[in-house]
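Try this one yourself first.
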C-alpha cells in the first residue's frame, strides 16, 4: 500500500488554506481601494449597531457611508425651532470610529420634508429657512462630514426645474443660494448635486446646465451624484459612460450614490397601463417571493460585472460608488413603488450571504491582481 507523502500533504494543505483565507479576507473595499470608495446607506438600526452580524459585514465590506433617512429634513429639523441631532451624532461617530468616508444626505429636498417647511410662503421666509437649516447642520459637522448632497432631485425628467416649495419661492436661484450657504459653513467639504435618471440625455443636459449656472453665479459644486437606481436592461452602458464623461468634463467628481438594480416588473413599463389597475397585492408584480431563479441571479451578476467594468475604466473620474442599503432584506425596493414585494437588488441576500453578483464584482479585480 502506498503511503501518503507527508510533505506533499503539508504543501497541499497550505495551498488550500491560503486560497480559503484569500477569499475570507477579500472584501469590496479592499479590492477597490485604489479605485474609488465603496459605500453603503445606513438605516437607523445600523447606525445604532443593533445587529452585530450586519455591523461586521458593513465594517468588512464598505469604507463610505450615507445616512439613508436620518438627516432628511423631517427627521433632523422637525419643527422650525427644533433640530434633532441624536441619530446624526451617532452616524458621524460611527463613521469616525470605523475610519469611513462620511457623506451627508441631504440638505435641500422636496421629499421627506418636515410639514412646517411646506408652509413657507415667500422668498424672504425661504431665504431665512435655508440660511438657518444649511448653516446650522453643515457647521455642526464641519470638518467631520466629508461631503454633502446639497440639493437632491431638483429636476423633472425632461431636464426642466421641478416645481417645489423651493422653486416656487426662489426659482432656480434656490440652488445657487444652497451651494453658497453650504460652502460658507464649511469651505472644505465636498458639495454635490444629486439626482436620478441622469443617464437619460434630456435630464442629463438639465443637470449639466444647472451645474454650469450655479458655478457661473459663484457657487461651488464639487461633484454630481447619479443615484443609479437601475434596472437589468437599462440604462445602457453607453448612456452611463456618456454621463461619466459629460459630468467630468464640467470639472466635477462623479459619484454613483444610491446604486441598486431592481429585478421586479415595474408598473410604468407595462404597455397601455390602465391607471385603475391595482398593483399592490397582485402576484404578477411579485414573481419571486421565495427565491430568485438562477437565470435572473446570473443576469444580475452579469449586469453588475458590466457596470463595474465600466466604472473601473473611468476610475480616475469617479469618487465613490455607494449601494442603497447593505442587503436585499432591508432594501427600500421591497416597498417601492409597490409595497410588500421581495426584491433582490443588492450584492448580499436577505440572510447576508454574498450573491453571485458580489463574486462577479470582486472577480473583476482578483483576476487582475
Ligand atoms: C428612500 C429610503 O431608502 C426609504 O427608506 C424612504 O422610505 C424613502 O427614501 N432617492 C433618494 C433617497 O435620494 O433618499 C431615497 O431613499 C430613495 C430615492
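Now uncover the answer:
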Amino acid at each position: 500500500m502506498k503511503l501518503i507523502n507527508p510533505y506533499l500533504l503539508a504543501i497541499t494543505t497550505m495551498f488550500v488554506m491560503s486560497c480559503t483565507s484569500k477569499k475570507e479576507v477579500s472584501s469590496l473595499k479592499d479590492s477597490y481601494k485604489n479605485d474609488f470608495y465603496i459605500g453603503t446607506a445606513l438605516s437607523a438600526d445600523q447606525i445604532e449597531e443593533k445587529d452585530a452580524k450586519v455591523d461586521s459585514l458593513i465594517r468588512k465590506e464598505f469604507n463610505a457611508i450615507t445616512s439613508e433617512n436620518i438627516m432628511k429634513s423631517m427627521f433632523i429639523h422637525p419643527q422650525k425651532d427644533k433640530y434633532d441631532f441624536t441619530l446624526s451624532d451617532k452616524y458621524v461617530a460611527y463613521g469616525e470610529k470605523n475610519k469611513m468616508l462620511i457623506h451627508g444626505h441631504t440638505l435641500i429636498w422636496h421629499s421627506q420634508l418636515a410639514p412646517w417647511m411646506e408652509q413657507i410662503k415667500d422668498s424672504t421666509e425661504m431665504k431665512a429657512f435655508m440660511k438657518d437649516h444649511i448653516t446650522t447642520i453643515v457647521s455642526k459637522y464641519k470638518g467631520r462630514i466629508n461631503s454633502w448632497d446639497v440639493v437632491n432631485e431638483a429636476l423633472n425628467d425632461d431636464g426642466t426645474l421641478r416645481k417645489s416649495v423651493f422653486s416656487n419661492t426662489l426659482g432656480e436661484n434656490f440652488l445657487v443660494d444652497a451651494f453658497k450657504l453650504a460652502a460658507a459653513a464649511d469651505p472644505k467639504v465636498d458639495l454635490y448635486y444629486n439626482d436620478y435618471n441622469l443617464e437619460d440625455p434630456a435630464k442629463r443636459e438639465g443637470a449639466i446646465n444647472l451645474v454650469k449656472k450655479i458655478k457661473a453665479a459663484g457657487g461651488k459644486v464639487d461633484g454630481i451624484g447619479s443615484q443609479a437606481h437601475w434596472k437589468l436592461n437599462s440604462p445602457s452602458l453607453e448612456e452611463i459612460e456618456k454621463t461619466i464623461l459629460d459630468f467630468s468634463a464640467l470639472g466635477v467628481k462623479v459619484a454613483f450614490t444610491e446604486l441598486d438594480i431592481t429585478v421586479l416588473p415595474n408598473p410604468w413599463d407595462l404597455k397601455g397601463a390602465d391607471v385603475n389597475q391595482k398593483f399592490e397585492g397582485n402576484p404578477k408584480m411579485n414573481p419571486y417571493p421565495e427565491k430568485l431563479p438562477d437565470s435572473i441571479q446570473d443576469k444580475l451578476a452579469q449586469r453588475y460585472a458590466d457596470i463595474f467594468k465600466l466604472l473601473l475604466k473611468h476610475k480616475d473620474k469617479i469618487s465613490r460608488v455607494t449601494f442603497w442599503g447593505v442587503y436585499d432584506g432591508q432594501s427600500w425596493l421591497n416597498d417601492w413603488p409597490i409595497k410588500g414585494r421581495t426584491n433582490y437588488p443588492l450584492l448580499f441576500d436577505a440572510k447576508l450571504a454574498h450573491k453571485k453578483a458580489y463574486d462577479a464584482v470582486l472577480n473583476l479585480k482578483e483576476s487582475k491582481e
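Discussion: The CA atoms of residues 75 and 84 lie 7 Å apart. Strands lie at 37-42, 64-67, 101-108, 147-152, 190-195, 223-226, 229-231, 253-262, 318-323.
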